[in-house]
């Protein structure tokens, strides 16, 4: 039986790699400013300062775009929870601490920019948005009790989770920009998606280094994340409703989760080509392969149901009014 490495050992062994990837990130990151992405000329006062409060007809965004923008923003708003998790599972010293601080600062720009865009342009109800932010940030986000009980290495579980989650967030932001029917929103969300891509590359490559250091342990964490993946927005107000709208309209759906997030990342790590797993690791890899095959079937079923639903909706809209 292969000895399990503790988080302290993993963090220590991987810190030189973290420093190299941090420096790579800093050389690639773009210095941008939220105020440059907000259409300030659309703004005017609300009632408290002598103007008019928000009413639904003021929004330029359709229902789907509003749902996606709110979901994306509230996800970014929960940054205090994500920072707490990262600081606790990584380290408060050296390259790890520098990375966590830098990542937090970059993520903070995302919520600033999206909120300014929505409030200035009256894209959504600002009162409802603020109430949802208060509720979501108060609830926070973290591993479930079941996840904590199953895994003793929080670091590996965290690094595996964000490898997929950052990519999922990139996909969601990019596709949200496309449905807003506003070049200003599209430009803003392209900028944010580019940040998320750089974050994903750091985490994905760190997870790859962990696979080289502790193959069975890292594989077990990766498989657990894939099999029990939760978007960070889960638990926010109206998450299910908004998530269904986003899935129905191709912003983030099961097919994208499989084809654009799970499979590319697994292929990058060459999980099914590696020969350094123990027999127990090979068995866990087979379980993961079976899960991905089963999930493919679930994806096809979802697509068939969605296509039938959209076809019925289109048919009804074409029928003349009686």
Automatic annotation (TrEMBL):
Residues 292-319 form a coiled coil. Its cofactor is Fe(2+); Fe cation. It holds the Pfam family FA_desaturase_2. GO terms for molecular function: metal ion binding; stearoyl-[ACP] desaturase activity. Fe cation 2 binds at residues 107, 166, 196, 199. GO terms for biological process: fatty acid biosynthetic process. InterPro entries: Fatty_acid_desaturase-2, Ferritin-like_SF, RNR-like. Binds 2 iron ions per subunit. Fe cation 1 binds at residues 76, 107, 110, 196. Keywords: Coiled coil, Fatty acid biosynthesis, Fatty acid metabolism, Iron, Lipid biosynthesis, Lipid metabolism, Metal-binding, Oxidoreductase. GO terms for cellular component: cytosol. Belongs to the fatty acid desaturase type 2 family. Homodimer. This is Putative acyl-[acyl-carrier protein] desaturase. It comes from Mycolicibacterium anyangense.
């Amino acid at each position: 039986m292969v000895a399990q490495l503790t988080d302290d050992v993993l963090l220590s062994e991987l810190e030189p790699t973290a420093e190299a990837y941090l420096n790579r990130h800093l050389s690639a990151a773009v210095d941008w400013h939220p105020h440059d992405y907000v259409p300030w000329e659309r703004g005017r006062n609300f009632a408290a300062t002598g103007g008019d409060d928000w009413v639904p007809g003021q929004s330029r965004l359709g229902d789907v775009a509003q749902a996606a923008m709110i979901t994306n923003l509230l996800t970014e708003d929960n940054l205090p929870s994500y920072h707490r998790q990262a600081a606790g599972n990584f380290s408060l010293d050296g390259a790890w601490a520098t990375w966590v601080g830098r990542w937090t600062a970059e993520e903070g720009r995302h919520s600033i920019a999206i909120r300014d865009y929505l409030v200035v342009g009256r894209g959504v109800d600002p009162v409802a948005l603020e109430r949802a932010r208060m509720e979501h940030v108060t609830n926070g986000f973290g591993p479930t009790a079941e996840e904590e009980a199953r895994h003793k290495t929080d670091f590996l579980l965290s690094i595996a989770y964000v490898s997929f989650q950052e990519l999922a967030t990139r996909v969601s932001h990019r596709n949200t920009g496309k449905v807003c029917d506003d070049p200003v929103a599209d430009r803003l969300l392209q900028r944010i998606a580019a940040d998320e891509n750089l974050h994903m590359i750091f985490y994905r490559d760190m997870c790859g280094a962990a696979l080289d250091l502790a193959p069975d342990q890292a594989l077990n964490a990766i498989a657990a994340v894939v099999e029990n993946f939760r978007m960070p927005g889960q638990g926010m107000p109206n998450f299910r409703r908004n998530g269904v709208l986003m899935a129905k309209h191709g912003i983030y759906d099961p097919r994208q989760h499989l084809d654009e997030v799970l499979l590319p990342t697994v292929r990058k790590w060459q999980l099914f080509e590696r020969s350094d797993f123990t027999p127990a690791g090979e068995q866990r890899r087979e379980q993961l392969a079976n899960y991905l095959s089963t999930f493919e079937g679930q994806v096809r079923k979802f697509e068939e149901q969605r296509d039938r639903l959209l076809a019925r909706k289109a048919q009804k809209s074409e029928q003349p009014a009686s």
